[in-house]
Amino acid sequence: MRHYPSDSPETMGRLVALTLMADGAIDASELAQLDQKNTIRRLGLNQESFDKLTHELCEDMLTRAYLTPAGKVELDLNSIDLLLAEIEAPMLQKKVLRMMLDLVNADNKLSGGEAVLVAEAMRFWQIDL
Questions:
Q1: 0.85 exceeded by the pTM?
Q2: Alpha-carbon gap, residue 117 to 14, rounded angstroms
């Protein structure tokens, strides 16, 4: 996986992009949520840089992730932890977790991949709801 500076907009944006893909597809309701909450701007990114980050994440996942029997590309927990570790400031961790929760709740369904990602973020960052 590419490395971005700790606590950078790119590091936070990559986790938001990963959340978008955690259920196997980017849903229209999730994209609407990004717009409604001004998530990309709040990350300190613009649409072009967020799209680039998402593309780079897809490239990285193709080289780092594994293919499930159902044909989905998934990251293991160790890889997820490496991404989570790049956000060190507790305030930013909470900010990104809120964005992640907004996205997974956008379609009123919680997939297994979304649940794993959010639960791992909460465990890794030691955040209790």
A1: yes
A2: 13
Token pair of 15 as six digits: 């986790």
Phi, psi of 75 (to 5 degrees): -90, 145
Give 94's contacts (C-beta < 8 A, 6+ positions apart).
125, 127
Q: Are 9 and 99 in contact, with CB atoms under 8 Å apart? A: no
CA distance 94 to 74: 24
Backbone angles phi, psi at 110, to 5 degrees: -110, 110
pLDDT digits (tens, 9 = 90+) for 53-70: 999 998 998 887 666 666
Place of tokens 């997974």: 104
H or E element that contains 21: helix 9-21
- DSSP per position, 51-115: HHHHHHHHHHHHHH-EE-TTS-EE--HHHHHHHHHT---HHHHHHHHHHHHHHHTTTS---HHHH
Average pLDDT value for the chain:
92
